[in-house]
Amino acid sequence: KMDLKLTLSKIEKLEKRILQSNKNPDISSNLTEETQRLIQKLEVPKSTSNAAGLLLEGQGSEKVPQPSNKSDCSTISNDQIEQTTTLTMEKVPMSADKRNDAVEGFERLPKQIKDMMAKTVGLEDGKNATAVIEKLMQENRLFEGDGEDKFSMTAKAEDIKDIITDLEIAEITSFVESSLPKSTRKEPVNEEDANAFYAEVLGLDTFNPFGKPENVPGGFLIRGENKVRPKDGREEGDLLIEALDKKLAVSSVHGKVNVYYILDPTPPSGEDILNDEDELPVLLITSSDISPSTDALIKTSISLIGVTSIAIFTLGSFSFNDTILNKLSSAMDTAGGNVDWFYDLSTPLALSILSIQLAHELGHIIVAFKDGFQIGLPTLVPGFQFGLTGAITPIRSSPRSLKSLFDFALAGPLMGIILSLILLYSGLELTAFMDLSAREQLPSVPVQILVSVISV
């Protein structure tokens, strides 16, 4: 980001000096060298994605400038497309023996570009490179490329506009999907609900919008200015969401949508970065349910395996105690041998492991209840090395602030640690005052297992 801001600043200064050189010829002598250095800095080596050039149909030899990467797509306007007068070149029709080269070049293009080119010949997508190239050749729109380009094709001006527009949409989609969890796109928000939120919930006393809601994957973005100010040590973002939630509760879209105050997930322009406007917060509207979807049968099965792993670890911990093994062997050899004593010995260890995890989950439940957001039932995660790895607790509705989320995350481990220390103290006290015969019946875990757990 800093490098880009510095480069943009240099370009801006260079433009001013070029304007001054028109009035003062003495300045122009030094500009050529500075311009060349800046061009070298901005130059991007040709990659395999530069496998095709694009000719604007109806303008003969004019070549549409190709952006060096997808973030440059927004810099090409419709007027530039129609008024392109850059590079003059002669169209050489693609010969049949070079068709395979064109197919190979097409396959190297980004998926969005392939799909756009396929749509210009009436195909749904660009998965079948051979079909796209054949169609272009049949329509006499495929020509031999220049330099490292494998081929060039002609397209109508309106097709080019659609391609640039679709690329911009694909860029925004990519940014949003990489910034927000997949669960936010589980149920799309319809435009009527977004407009109802805009009209009924927003206001000059909360959030002053700059424009209508913008459709993004999973919901809508609303850009504007937060009118709520910090108060009593609370941050403005938390107070804004609190105020919006109160209005949302009495609106027609209550229970249909959720609102979040987040940093803008869409790609910034060079001007935004230069003006430090690339990290401005916006409102995100999503559906009310953004919790991850997991099959109930799978979750139940995993939890049962988790309980089984506790039992296996508990019983296995006595397998290293020779006294217990000999006693079990004698009981098995005796007809009607009673092994209830063994279950009495192993139950405290199993309950201790399970209770620590339950205390952990209780910590999460307490904070969720206090802060008024919903969570689902935890799924026990088996861990055959030490009985249980942990648990996964789904959040059904989002916490209203980062502090609330932090408290929720911290409460579980804290409760688990407290109970662990209590059990550790109780175990050490019982062991210290235990007679020799009772001590010989305690579970035994090899040091190597404990070391391996700690190292993990």
Work out the oligomeric state of the chains in this entry: single chain
**Unreliable parts:** 44-51, 54-90
In the sheet with the most strands, the strands line up as: 5-6-9-8
Following the backbone from N to C, one meets helices and strands in this order, namely HHEHHHHEEHHEEEEHEHEHHHEEHHH
As a whole number of angstroms, the C-alpha radius of gyration is 33 Å
Strand-pairing-aware structural class = alpha+beta
Q: What portion of the residues fall into strands of 2 or more residues?
A: 5-15%
Number of helices: 16
Helix content: 40-55%
The CA-CA distance between the termini, in Å, is: 37 Å
Mean pLDDT: 75
Describe the 3D structure:
This protein has 456 residues and is of the alpha+beta class. It contains 16 helices and eleven strands. It has helices spanning 2-21, 25-42, 78-82, 99-107, 111-119, 129-138, 157-179, 191-200, 236-249, 270-274, 296-317, 322-333, 340-371, 402-432, 436-439, 447-455, and strands at residues 52-56, 142-144, 151-155, 207-209, 214-216, 219-222, 224-226, 257-263, 281-287, 379-383, 387-392. The strands form four sheets. A four-stranded antiparallel sheet has the order 5-6-9-8, with helices on both faces. The protein has a three-stranded mixed sheet with strand order 1-3-2. It has a two-stranded antiparallel ribbon with strand order 4-7. The longest helix is centred in the C-terminal third of the chain and has 32 residues, at 340-371.
